[in-house]
Inverse folding.
């Protein structure tokens, strides 16, 4: 599923990806995903490829009382932030 670039100040576009930068040099970092339910989620365990593909699939298993269940393979439309391999957790 291709998802468009969104903005933090516009919650009407969901699902969407939100740009993130770090440091004074505004270096691009891993994007934030706005789920179809509107919640913002990090994707540290996913691989963001340079062409905008995100692997593995994105799944939001929100528990009751607000279950979501959004599950898709994502492609970030207009992504130009480079590649981010999955973060290794020990």
């Amino acid at each position: 599923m291709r998802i468009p670039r969104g903005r933090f100040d516009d919650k009407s576009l969901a699902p969407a990806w939100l740009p993130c930068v770090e440091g004074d040099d505004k270096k691009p970092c891993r994007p934030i995903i706005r789920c179809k339910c509107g919640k913002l989620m990090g994707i540290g365990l996913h691989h963001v490829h340079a062409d905008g593909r995100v692997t593995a699939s994105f799944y939001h298993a929100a528990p009751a009382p607000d279950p979501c269940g959004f599950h898709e393979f994502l492609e970030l439309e207009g992504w130009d932030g480079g590649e981010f391999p999955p973060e290794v957790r020990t």
